[in-house]
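Q: Can I see a sequence and its folded structure?
A: Here is a first one.
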Amino acid sequence: MHKLRWGVLGVARIATTKVIPAMQRCALCEIAAIASRDSDRAEQAAAALNIPKAYGSYEELLHDPGIDAIYNPLPNHLHVPWSIHAAECGKHVLCEKPVGLNAAEVRQLMAARDRSGVTIGEAFMVQVHPQWVRTVELVRGGRIGTLRYAVGTFGYFNDKPSNVRNVLEYGGGGLMDIGCYPIKVSRMVFGEEPVRVCGSMRRDPAFGTDMLTSAMLEYPSGHCAFSCSTQVAPNQSMQFYGVSGRIELAIPYNAVPNRASHIRIDDGSDILGSGIVVEEFAPCDQYTLQGDAFARAVLDRTPPPVPLEDSLANMAVIDAIVRAAESGQWERPQT
């Protein structure tokens, strides 16, 4: 069985602790090389993770003919430039979320994809997790009746000035880092695009990044409301409410790979939750599933799990929330 040979740009924590180990368990992926602007860091990461090749520059990796695809976990402001460069070098690209800083950048990346003929996708691993696949199936199948609204939260505490999530020019802030998730999953479950949004932001006085963002998305058939924060006790939640029931995901985004996942389905019979049924999903690593799904798309020449058209729609909502927070008015996403 042919495996896609991967190179990793950078030694970001998400890559070295989560994604690379998970992809090394893929049936269709082989992590063949890793690069850093610091050759010592690249060699240390390669040794620790048993990766055959280490490069002291991103350029060297992109010009390696033995690499088929690139995983890009660089800081947000480097996603589009290096993903475009990778595409120009003939490499397929799986880029971390958010795939760009704004919708205009995503359009640039789409143009590079179309010119080069490679596959480029955004690494929203939730797209392929069984708990989300099942949630979409249940809602579309009418299990909770017509979907009326979704409510979500996502937050953690990080006030370190040097952290990339707190650097404005790097695309830091809560909305870009974690607010993108409730936007993504609400679009995925509603199966629609928001027609307009409103939002409010509170920015850190030192960093300038949003440390608290709340937004409401108006869909043709309902609403999604969410809050996200980078300076709050760790939390995450997502619930979907229909006319005859609701669905709640216990750990919606950072599902633990070695533990079962659960969704709760409430038939709405009473406020005590007497009608709740719990569905359990066997332990799985969503980064492994993501890697194989992307590789399969490349090998079969089919769209990746999260194509750039989907990324553009998600980024257009993020842009609109930023505009709404500034204008104090409803804003329409513009793709």
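Q: Show me another, different protein.
A: A second, unrelated one:
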Amino acid sequence: MSRAFEQLSWDETPMGVLGLRRRLEPVTGADVYEVKLGDEYLMSSAFTVAEIELARLGLAAHAGAELDVVVGGLGLGYTADAACEDPRVRSLVLVEALPEVIAWHEQRLLPDVERLARDGRVCFVEGDFFALSASEDGFDPQAPGRAFDVVLLDIDHTPRHVLADSHAGFYTREGLAGLRRHLTASGVFALWSDDPPDEPFLELLGAVFSSAHAEVVTFPNPLTGGESANTVYLAG
């Protein structure tokens, strides 16, 4: 049986102390992998339904036979792993600002998604998603200006609750228009949020893209005995 607690990684980063730990969840009896940045919990493998649905809904919104995809924010890798399940995905660029997070995957510290590091379609890019989105060159340093079919984003808690002040400009008309130019003509943008649908943000998406809507993803929460919910925004 696994140990009750293990600190897998603990690093000083420009954003604060980043930690990856594994613990035995007493309610479910399962191993849970958690990420903390300073005193703030960022993500947990106990709740991955919405992260997986971000990939499934985003890819399902595109009718293409072959897809070039960007995932902004690697984290525990569940969105990227779900994208790999779609046989239409031809290439997958994973943009992550913190090299320590990329190292977790390269060192196979996360058994549920260890295939990411050996999938030939996958390219890890160390970079600031928001800065790359605002740039002319875009997300692929090997092919400046390359356009993508789908961009999946899961970095901030919500469009209003961002992890760093520098991210806030992305959730404006100008910031979203900057992303739009890195998509193909039929491209899709999908965004995870921890809050219920935000109507002003949906209106903003609709002003930049031809269409926009929000999907509420619900999932059982064994810790509360009830349900929890996240939102996936879809625009194209």
